[in-house]
Amino acid sequence: MLRYFTLLVCLCWLVPVQAATGQTLRLALDADPVSLDPHEQLSEGALQYSHMVFDPLVRWNTAGQIEPRLVQSWQILDSRTWRLQLREGVKFHSGNDFTANDVAYTIARLQESTDFKALFGVIDHVTVENPYSVTIHTRHSYPLMLNILAFVFPIDSEYYQGRDEITKFGRSFASANASGTGPFMVTERLPGQKLTLTRNADYWDQYSPGNIDQLEWIPIRSDSTRLAALMTGDVDVIASLSPIDIQRLQRKPNIHLASLISSRIIMLQLNQSRRKELQDWRVRRAINLAINQELIVKKILRGYGEAAGQVSASQFLGHVDALVPEYDLAEAKRLMKEAGYEQGFSLSFMAPNNRYMSDEQIAQAVVGMLDKINIKVALKTLPKAQYFQQFDERAADIMMLGWQSDTLDSNNIFEFLFACQNPSTGRGVYNANGYCNKQVDDDIDSANREMNPERRIRILQRIERKIKQDAVIVPLHWQAIVWASDTHVDIDPVLNFQNFPYVGDLVRHSEAGTQ
Length: 515
Fold this sequence. Notes:
By secondary structure, the protein is α+β, with helices and mostly antiparallel strands. It has two domains: 23-236 and 488-508, 3-Layer(aba) Sandwich (D-Maltodextrin-Binding Protein, domain 2); 263-479, Roll (Dipeptide-binding Protein, domain 3), CATH 3.10.105. 27% of the residues lie in helices and 24% in strands. It has helices at residues 44-53, 100-110, 117-120, 145-149, 157-160, 173-176, 223-231, 243-249, 281-290, 293-300, 329-338, 359-371, 384-392, 410-417, 438-447, 453-469; strands at residues 23-29, 58-60, 66-68, 71-78, 81-86, 123-130, 133-138, 184-190, 194-199, 212-219, 237-239, 255-270, 305-307, 345-352, 375-382, 398-403, 473-486, 489-490, 507-508. The strands form four sheets. Strands 1, 8, 9, 10, 11, 12, 13, 14, 15, 16 and 17 form an eleven-stranded mixed β-sheet that branches. A four-stranded antiparallel β-sheet has the order 4-5-7-6, with helices on one face. Helix 9 (281-290) runs antiparallel to helix 11 (329-338).
């Protein structure tokens, strides 16, 4: 359970780390960032990139605690007012100084972003007190302020001013240019081929052990090709491994595997707005009962995942122990008959084929499972860049989605995926269900204001039970995070349960070195 405290954080005296330099790291992932704009898309890939080129105000450490980054300390003045003291002496890649104006500018920009505005709508305004201090004023009491500050990656206001338009999946100055404060600077970008980053020689964090001078982010869509590149030494680190590949690598002495179960929930969204059949609770419930989550985890994921019966992971306050997977094919058939669809019907289904572990194979398995209750599914899979454009258009009756709670809290999932859609506030921006329930929305509002932990737990669990009762979506599993590297790369210390590796702190040992 995550707990939140009123506190003033002070930094202890530390000795700067002296790390060997001159190391190049070749990182192969299933895709490269769709944009260089850190505020364009709220996605895992975008946030992985942001932690390389920009810096957050605060971040989660490996123990699940918040630690200062560009914010040096913070203080709660009252239930609606936070004072942040910023780090001095930090420069953007352009050479401009990082100041309080950049923080205020960035938060205002985030409030205009389609993907981020719901996260930051709670902020009423930001006051610049002096060049290195800001005060954040919220619209109401809010228990998760530090959690959302982990998603504030300040941008260079002087560099972007007048050309800071956020264009999702489009062409803009910010999508093709970057000036952050992070450990790496963008030196070359060939979309779909390679993103080259070089170490920021003026990086403020002298305590980082990182010794990577050049980072090459190479997108390799195919799991097998990515694996082969690691095994032949063409790349040093890979992620998004298939379960079969994991088993192969376990027998390779020169390859290191690192894995952990994340809180990312993989689910199927059932669009009630597109099909009248999906407006019937009995049909949605039947679909849930016809899909065998345990079998998917065992046979397709080879145990690298945890079958889910709800969207809240066990470490979240909204988790309800009694809500577990319920595969029951006989009951699913009975409900289809009762709803008048014993002979079935057809649905369209879209899923990515390079975003989540074994996503395409899981989608194919779902097609076979739904066929057993006479639902004929037309499946189309796409690379993730194209897929999420289709997702934004709600282009199919069933759509696969994975969600990592940005605030490591149940209410983030509820607010983005189950709240009534509201383009002006960003509420329900990833709601492809067509679900809208006033009581759920009211409870989401209450949870966003409630400072008493016990009362807040009761609210969040009530929402979780209601989503289950209404069979809004099909929860599949919580995904495992698995990375593989050459044994000379010390990958474990920079990994975390959000899957945003802090590559700026990564150490690569020379061939003659020791681990």
